[in-house]
Amino acid sequence: MTEGKEEVVKGLENAGIEGELAEFITEDFMPVKFTVDLEEQLEDAYADDILTILGREVEGEIKPGDIALKVNKSELPENIKGELKRKLGVVREKLSQDTLDEIVAKVVASYVAAKIEPREAVGIVAAQSIGEPGTQMTMRTFHYAGVGAIYITLGLPRIIEIVDARKKLSTPTMTIKLLEEYASERNKAEELAMRIQEAHISDIGRVETSAEDMSVWLALNERDLEKRYITREEVVEKIKGLSTETLIEEMDGGQLRIYNGSTTFQERSKFEKTIATTLVKGIEGIKQVLTRKGLGEEYVLYTVGSELKKLKNQKIEGVDFQRTTTNNIAEIAEVLGIEAARNAIIEEMISTLNEQGLDVDPRHITLIADAMTMDGEVKQIGRHGIAGEKASVLSRAAFEVTVDNLLEAAIHGETDELKGVTENVIVGQPIKLGTGAVDLVARK
User: Fold this and answer.
1) How far apart are CA 182 and CA 298, in angstroms?
2) Which residues neighbour 187 within 8 Å (Cβ) at sequence distance 6 or greater?
3) Mean pLDDT along residues 12-32
4) What is the DSSP string of 343-392?
5) Angle CA(152)–CA(155)–CA(157) in degrees, nearest 5?
6) What is the DSSP annotation of 126-148?
7) Is the pLDDT of residue 307 over 50?
8) How far apart are CA 70 and CA 106, in angstroms?
């Protein structure tokens, strides 16, 4: 430690700093930094100056400090700067100063070229860019990729579900990722699937009513009990939990006689239905769970039905909730927040378009996702959402329910400022975007 400190002081004095000042600087300099590997020192943006002082500069080599300095001086956004520095750092040893300058210049040029022109009508372009491929999309429901017996909505119906922000989907599904041994052992994965899949008493046995003794009889299927990892004791406990007056008697042949004091046919029928629909195991709403191998040779669970909130709250052992996904965007917004919902809209729309072989610039889709989520909740693109909340009367009337919108605006004395695209097209004047955003004045 002392030798390192003396070395730093000597280096500072050689650089022209007076002895007392050099001593003062090294008090907070932490000489221990110089005991680490040279490559670790180079990770610091200021390491170049330190290495020069110590006489250990590597001649003719591009250092992380050079890359950071060059990239930071550019006019790129911070996230692009960070990504560029990481990627250049990987190939640092193969770079020269000229190559570094050229790469940064090309990235800056590409970024500038990708920016839209001022006053560009981005909403119209985004609508056209998704609307035109939408005419080529098929109306179909397909098997979930690589999974039999599970269907998901694809094509145009799926796009409509997304932009309408529907809370009840035609084919809700979750992809549940697993942890450690559950992901590698099929038996454990299947057992976990049965713990998640809903199992009512009617799924594991036959429920009948008896007019003779005014009771309900339950004959459990031993094979179904074993398949779903349910014991008879669990079933009995669930039935007893229905009411304090419920009496259960095990009869010959393993049948259960259940009595709750019903005296009329209607009461007995209602009690029979209650028993049949009683949930014994699993999550209500998850009708089926299939186990299949996903990417990376790990087992993944695919569900019919989506209950993300219940899955999170139950904290089932073996479920990797951080990697679990659902196609229900409303659930994602409720459980994980609006930013997660925004990302889900983008990913779902891109995957649906890609499945159809349609190539749409992600920026158009991002714009739609931003518009749907900018107020902190997922809103549909329709009269009950974005279109119905526009400030322009004519724009609202042009979308749907024309008479109602005009009548409502007249009653309240609303004024249309004619600032948007639709309303200016209606009245026959140039829109305030593109070339219409510029006024030319000619001298007399």
Assistant:
1) 9
2) none
3) 58
4) HHHHHHHHHHHHHTT----HHHHHHHHHHHHTTSS---SSTTTTGGG-S-
5) 75
6) HHHHHHHHHTT--EEEEE-TT-T
7) yes
8) 13
What does the alpha-carbon distance between residue 116 and residue 378 come to, in Å, rounded to a whole number? 26
Q: Token match 């990770």: residue?
A: 43
Looking at the chain, how many residues does it have?
444
Weakest-pLDDT range from 36-45, 105-114, 284-293, 362-371: 36-45
Note the pLDDT tens digit of each residue in 49-90: 554 544 444 455 778 788 888 888 888 889 899 899 889 888
158 close to 172: Cβ distance less than 8 angstroms? no
- Paired strand residues for 250: 256
Of all residues in the chain, the percent with pLDDT exceeding 70 is: 83
Residues 407, 399: Cα–Cα separation, whole Å:
15
Distance CA 53, CA 11 (A): 5
Answer yes or no: pTM beyond 0.90: no
Residues 6+ apart with CB under 8 A from 226: none
Question: Which domains, from first to last, does the chain contain?
Answer: 127-147+154-168+327-381 (1.10.1790.20), 199-281 (3.30.1360.140), 389-437 (1.10.150.390)
How far apart are the C-alpha atoms of 149 and 304, rounded to whole Å? 9
The residues near 432 (Cβ < 8 Å, ≥ 6 apart) are: 419, 424
Rounded to an integer, what distance in angstroms lies between the CA atom of residue 414 and that of residue 110? 45
Q: How far is CA 63 from the centre of its chain?
A: 38
- Give 129-155 pLDDT, tens digit per residue: 998 888 888 776 666 655 666 788 888
Decide: helix, strand or coil at residue 117.
coil
Backbone Cα Rg of the chain:
34
All residues at 6 or more sequence positions from 360 whose CB lies less than 8 Å from its CB, including other chains: 129, 130, 133, 350, 353
Distance, in Å, from the CA atom of 421 to the CA atom of 433, rounded to the nearest integer, reads 8
Give the position of tokens 């309303």.
423
Q: How many H helices and E strands in the chain?
A: 22, 12
